[in-house]
Amino acid sequence: MLSHSVVEGSLPYRFRVLWDEIAAIGRDPGSGGYLRYALGAAELALRDWFREQARRRGLAVTEDGNGNLLARWGDPDAVDAVLVGSHFDSVPHGGGYDGPLGIVSAFLAVDELRAAGVTPTRPVVVAAFVEEEGARFGVPCLGSRLLTGAIEVDRAAGLRDAAGVSFAEALGQAPVGARPDLLAGFSSFVELHVEQGRALVERDAPVAVAEAIWPHGRWRFDVHGEANHAGTTRMADRRDPMLTYAFTVLAANKEARLRGAHATVGRVRVEPNATNAVPSTVTGWLDARAADQETLDALVEAVAAKAAERARRDGTEVRVTEESATPLVTFDDRLGTRLARLLAAPVLPTAAGHDAGVLAGHLPTAMLFVRNPTGVSHSPAETATDADCAAGVTALARVLTELTR
After folding, report:
1. So what's the pLDDT on residue 4?
2. Which residues of 80-156 form beta strands (DSSP E)?
């Protein structure tokens, strides 16, 4: 909602007008969070919004065959464009700013350059990547992984959501996979994102430049036991996979704390999922992150070993499957240093994954963070002030001016 304290026509005002156009899309009235699943109704509505924003600005929109949208300002034949943008999708009941802020800011940064009379010698391409969170099809940064060839096309096409719909079916076609021809046309990529922590609050700064992304991944733990009656099965006779899995969750917490790493179990599936039945199968997903690969590997190995040890005691079986893994990403040092000096901004690492982390292996990449006063992300409590968002737009416009000369 527009604040009476915001001056009409100012950048915070223009940000809020644009933000209000998309802010309610996908919001769940019950939780206040967002349900913007990749290629679902809410995200499709936002993709239409993206096309309309591009049309208003005279930008040509194309798709890369993998679900990623690209809106181009400038010479269609130039091969040194600056790529900028983020994603629309969210985790279940997630925050409003994670992803869309980067796309809204990119369009507004284009407006700022035009208002200043800047005619970039290099084109600017605003991107909206598909399935960054992995909340629907299970693999994070799916769109950027496909674009760069980091995931096999057949595997991506066959990924299915909870309702059994495949990614190819939701997309309306089989994804085309790697597009080296498209990547060769970009000179750099900059992603603006709301901060997922409180470092900028502590530094009293509205904007920062990213330094690196911790290595991280997702591992599925399938624990198999024996379904039986909760009332008539003696405790000594049970082969209960829930006991094994509960122990695994506690082990993940302990091992992560011992190593200064992060381990989270936020999703679990139980069969037959009946109150009065011992489960037959428990499947859970471990999200693990650490400052370096050695620590991450040791963490996951320790958790898997503890799970296997407990399974032997419980008479159950456990299988661990790596579903995704992203190594340590160090953003382009020369580009990051250049932007930090340009903006006089602090430089921060992050433990969160982003499309920028995938693209960093293929072209010079940088990230900007906008202050989040709560420090909370992937939650309805995630927020940013209009003034800080405007500061982010100003910073991004300065970056684009610098990079498109």
Report:
1. 45
2. 81-87, 124-129
